Amino acid sequence: MLGKTYLTKQASLLLEFARTTSDSDLSAKLISKAADLKSQADPLPDKDQGPKAPDVASDISPDRPTGS
Q1: Dihedral of CA 50/33/35/20: which sign?
Q2: What is the pTM of this model?
Q3: Could you give the 3-state DSSP secondary structure of residue 4?
Q4: What is the DSSP string of 12-56?
Q5: How far is the first Cα of the chain from the last one, in angstroms, to the nearest whole number?
Q6: What would the pLDDT profile of 8-45 be if each residue is shown by its tens digit?
Q7: 33-39: long-range contacts at Cβ-Cβ below 8 A with a sequence spacing of 24 or more?
């Protein structure tokens, strides 16, 4: 599932493109797609809850050699 931040950013970009085009049909389609993305993003939590990256070598201190 895509996160709220991503969907919101994509909707914002579509609206920006809709404002810059002189083609009214294209503008209407872009606005419609932006509305679809916003409706997908609205029920999601404000902060994306994706998996967190594991700590890489979290048990190695900067002062300790890596054992090579």
Answers
A1: positive
A2: 0.61
A3: helix
A4: HHHHHHHHH-S-HHHHHHHHHHHHHHHHHHTTS-SS--PPPPPPT
A5: 41
A6: 899 999 999 999 999 999 999 999 999 999 988 877 76
A7: 34/10, 35/11, 37/7, 37/8, 37/10, 37/11, 38/7, 38/8, 38/11
